[in-house]
Structure formats: C-alpha cells, structure tokens
Amino acid sequence: RVRNWTLDDSRFFGGGPVSVGERPPRMVGAVSALGVACGTLLAPGVSAQPAAPTAASSAPETRASSAAVEQPCPPTLSALSGVACDLGVQLGDALGRRDSGALVIPGPLQSDAQLERSAELAQRIARVVAGKVGGKAHGTQTTRGAAQLAARSRAFLFLDLRIAHGQLEVTADVYRPVKGFWARVRNPNPEPLKHAFTSRPLDAEVRSFFPTVPLVAGKVLKVKAPESQVLALGCGDVDGDSALELVAVGRSAIHVGRIRGGKFVASARRTWAGLSPVAPVPLREPIATVSISRGEHVDVGLTDRAKGFRFDVKLTPLATLDLPLPWPGNGCIETYQTLLGRRERPCKATDAPSSAPGYEHRGDAVAGASLIDATGKRHQYRALRAAKEERVDLRSDRGGRASLGNLGAQLAMGDLDGDGAPELIASTPSMVPAEDALIVYSWQEPAQPAERLRIAAPGGVSAVAACPAEDTARAYLVAAVGDELWLIR
To answer: Which of 52, 261, 280, 465 could link 235 by a cystine bridge, Cβ 3.0 to 4.6 Å?
Structure first.
C-alpha cells in the first residue's frame, strides 16, 4: 500500500497536493488514466475552434445531460461549507466514530492580505469542518507538534490554513494517537494516516474578517470593444480555473475573452447566424442577457434570435435553453410582445428550481445576483425595470422590496465591496449619450438603497456587468460605453 504520496507541482492539474492511498491493482488503473490525461494534454493538432453545431443535432442535449450529474460538493456552497464538504468526502471515516472525541485542531492562518481577526477566522473554519467530519474543534490555534500534545490519546485532524490569490486553501492530516511512552520515543513525529487538500474562492463570509474598504471608483481602463454595439456583458469564472472570463454579446456574435495589455483578447467567438434562426417577431430594440454559473457554463439569449443557448468557456453549445433569455442569478424568462416576463423558471428541466421572488408586472430590463452574505448563507436578489415609469423594482428571497426611480435600461447586480449585500448598477434614462452615467446603489435590507457612486459615461452605456472579486482585491465593473469597454475598479 502506498501512503501519503504527494504531488505539488503547478504544471499538473492546476497544482496543489494530491494524495494517493490505493492498493497496487487499483494504482495500475490510476497510472493508466494519468497517462491518457497527459497524452490528451500533449496531443498535437487539436483545434481551438469549436465545431459548428448542426440544426438537428442532439449532441448538445446529450452533453448537457451527462454534465448534470449531481456533485457531492457543488460550487454554490459558501467557502467554509465547501471546504468542510470537500474534506468530508476525501477523509471519509478516517477520524473514527463521530462520538470518539477526536479533535479538529487549526494551525496558524497564513495570509497574503491583511486580516483583522485571524484567530477568530481559524476557529470558525475548525468549527465548520468539525461539524462535517465529526469531532470537536480545538479552542486555540497551535503548531503541528503541539497538536499531538493537545490531543493526548485521541485521534486528531490538523488543519494547515492559508489565504493566497483570492483562495482559502486547507490542507488536512489525520493522526492516530501513539500510545505508550516508548512508542512515542521511537516515533516522535508519526506520519499522518490520511491526507486531504481543498481550496475555495473567498466570499463575503471570509472577507468579513478583512478590513473594510470604502466603495470609490479607481482608475478607468478603456479598451476597444469586440463589436461596435455590445448589448450585454457577463463576467465570472466560467470554467472554474479561478480566472475571470468576460462575455460580450453583440447582434452578430458572442465573444469570450479577457482584457490584457490594454485590449480585449478573445479566446472564443461564435456568430449568431451559425446558432439560431432569426426570431419570428424580433423586438425593434434588441435585448440580450448573460448569466454565468461559476465553474459550469454560461447562458446567453438575444431577442433577435429564436433560441437562447448554454455554452462552455469555448462557446461550444451544451444545450438549447427552454426559454429565450436567462435572468442573471438562476433562471430564465420569456418575452411577451415588447416586454420581458415577470417570473423566472429553470432554463432547463434538469436545473434546480428558482427561489427568486416574482413580480406583478413585466419590464424591459432585468438584473440579478446570487450572493453569499457575511454569515455564509446564499440569497437571491432580482431587479426588474418598469419601462414606462423608468422605475427599477428590487426583490430578495428574504421578502425585501425596494424601488428606485429615474433609471435607465442598463442594469447589473453584484457585491462590489465584499460585505455580502448587493449593489445595483444602472444607467440613466437620458436619450442624449453625452449625458449618460453609471450610478451605483447599495442595498442593505430592510433599509432603502443608497447611492454610493456616480460615474459620468459620455458616449452612452449599452451594457454593464459586475465582476466578482479576484485575489484579495474588491470587485470591479465592466461597461460598454460607445464603442469601448470600460474596466472600473
């Protein structure tokens, strides 16, 4: 039996420790699988361009069905709950029975960013992990050597904690007690019985231990847009590699890329003409929406076209949406004449039902977000603009309601300052592009939204998106202004 063999090389599988504890016959299969994986990664002649789908092809639905397998620890969990779930799956019953009195002991928390309450965060991590894997959280942080003394004759799980590059990283080692004086003399530093590693992006629960940062606009980076008329923007980690992708939807094509070296660099592009026929009755003023599920897919819809689609990061179609437009946050909506629907439904029958609140009226613009608050709970927030009244109505799954008047049809929602409460970003209703602006409101329920920021945007705003925070920095905005993309930190 091979025990506690560790690979920690950034060139393989994104880096991070990989533990192996298998019998030799099973190791043969594992090595064979590794050879196939490496052969695939190094295979020459693989085209980066996705194949164009045929109109009658059922392959996208097949791929979507196979991708809909339930994950034991979905990415929608909070950072702490996700870490505990991952460790529980990897460690199994290595700590023994839940009533065995085993300890979960946190080590010193290392961080590349300033923390206000490091010890308190380490204790919270230990409590959440202990609740998942069994055992009792130890009262204080300690070193690995001191943990053996603290555990005495009990099994214990030692947590090596680190915050780096916007990720919470936890390495966990299970130790069995070494009984007897001479046994401890012969083996003062026993090897761990089992090893596990996991990491999760920081969320508002973890960021609540960081110093608060005021919401102010930093430097604005302006780059050429991939199309002259961008109708919708989406920003998020589509493929789960901890790097954000920017999705730009135009009337002619969909683009996925990043802003590098002062320009938008596309990694994938797909034309609408090769995807869907023109809608039977397209709107005079087209509406497009984008919704990104982190680490899974991106949903895109355009009222010019008969169908909306679900893509991977390379814009390979995974499925056709059951409704034409995604509502950012969770579900999809239908169109009715010149307006959008008032209640969202799952984009696919295999999707989880939406817990977002509904509306009594239709509108011409929507926005939404699914956010983790400072207590680690996920909440749904939605915004719908009543066209004639130029009013944006806000709803939350906790029953919160609010309204803001005199706002335009470019909307986005997100957590810009990392406090777990949503911000609404909106354009003005001005018909003169030179007078347009971006306005940022913070909504701390049950209070009314408060204006926090106003940024002049001469040239006219045609789309806006809130990007989640990267590394330990705060989030930022991306807006399509005229024929440019503005990146606003």
So the answer is: 465
